[in-house]
Write a structure and sequence with these properties.
The protein is globular. The chain is α/β, with parallel strands linked by helices. Strands 3-2-1-4-5-6-7-8 form an eight-stranded mixed sheet. 5-O-phosphono-beta-D-ribofuranosylamine binds next to helix 1 and strand 5.
Length: 209
Amino acid sequence: MTVRFVVLASGRGSNAAAIMTATRTGVIQGEVVAVFSNNPTAGVLEKAHSESVVTHVVSLQPSESRLEYDTRLCEQVRQTRPDIVVLAGWMRILTHAFIDGIGVPIINIHPGLPGELPGTNAIERAFSERETGRSYSGVMVHLVPDVGVDTGPVLGTSVVQIGQNDTLAMFEDRMHTAEHELIVSVLAQVSTRFSNSQPIEKPTQGEKI
Ligand code: GRF
């Protein structure tokens, strides 16, 4: 059984692109059946088009509440019949209207280690903490069981060192590379387990880069 992934992304889409490449080349046994974005100008849309993946833009309507938006988004995502939803740079906090309504596992990528730097600008915040002694950060991939921000059962982590001579751009590049490698590795394992009807809550080995 091939896993049907649906990717939600708000920005440039480098993680989504890594996932789409890996499904196309068979590294991940699955298919990205749709990419959703809340942002009509997101780079991820172009990346999906170049992979011939169907895209949907679901923009927030004026005066639409968070719950109303999530209910509408959930209905549209469900119509694509996902087995797993992947948040790859989805820059909206999801409410229970989506999380409870979608009925399939949701997996998120966070550019921080478990319990660290939840929310936006985690890479910049980690880098700025170098001044106070931080020498590494990392990335994690985790399940999204509830409305917590960047929390949930961890499926994989990867530690990324902050070099003394790093610029922010250098650190960002390594963090993004780590994200791309980790999400592909985790989804490859998840898809294998899914195909064998095994539960997906099995941590992968953390890798150090
Ligand atoms: C990634 O760092 C992701 O972890 C964070 O936002 C960034 C999105 O990058 N939530 P991209 O759109 O996948 O290139």
